[in-house]
Amino acid sequence: MTPNANGSPRVFIGVHATTFLRDLPPEPPLTAAGAMAGSRRDATTRLGLLFDAHHRRLHRLGLRLLGDVEEARDLVQETFLRAAGALARVPEEEPAAEAWLVRVAVNLCRDRHRRRAVRRAHAAPMPREVAASDDEAARLARWTVRAALLALPPRRRAIVVLHEIEGRSAAEIAALLGTRAVTVRWHLSRARRELAKALLPPATRHEETP
Fold this sequence. Notes:
73% of the residues lie in helices and 0% in strands. The chain contains 10 helices and no strands. The chain is globular, with a radius of gyration of 30 Å. Residues 8-22, 117-122, 126-132 and 205-210 have low confidence and may be disordered.
């Protein structure tokens, strides 16, 4: 270390440190536009993570609720558009984020139900006779169940799908839909009666439904 004229190295170090710092490129000031751009990047990243984590599960739910691949795809898109427009309201933690998305999807299904006077399933002609082959009988059975399920109100249909197909408990469904377990059980009971009325032969309805 080289001392200065009075024998102290501090002035020498200070001068060269100042020169080094002066040669560094200045940091750009943080502007409002820069802060907004950073916020947008953070929002895009979070929305992408939500999509990666939940879009397949929401598509399966939409397919079971709507019975159509394209409508299920549109439902997923609409759900994440709603999430993008209200990202601050989407919970940070799981499973609360999943529950928020499921509630939005179910509400969108309800809106579609209200706007649509005639469902696609009801528009298709129902075969009058069951063909002899097992394939035809199975296809007719699937059509009949699908039509009966789609005839349920959207929220009740969602509860049936979540319970009977996805195997979720009443408490889990209540947490997802933001309601009480007793309400879920009531919807399940009503749905079973309505499905039995639609699916069972008249001679057996009295025995199966109180």
